[in-house]
Amino acid sequence: MLGNYVPPACDFNRVIMNFTVTSKGRQFDRLGLMYLGDIEVFRTSTAEPTSNGIVWTYIKEMDQYETLWKTEQKIIFDLGNLIDSTYTALFNTLLTATFFTVQNTKPAADQILPISARRSADNGPSAFSLPSNNASVAYRIPQNTERAIVTLSACGQAAEEFWYTNVQNSEVNTFADQVGVLYGYSPFRE
Question: Can you tell me the distance from the alpha carbon of 60 to that of 102, in angstroms, rounded to the nearest whole number?
Answer without folding.
Answer: 16
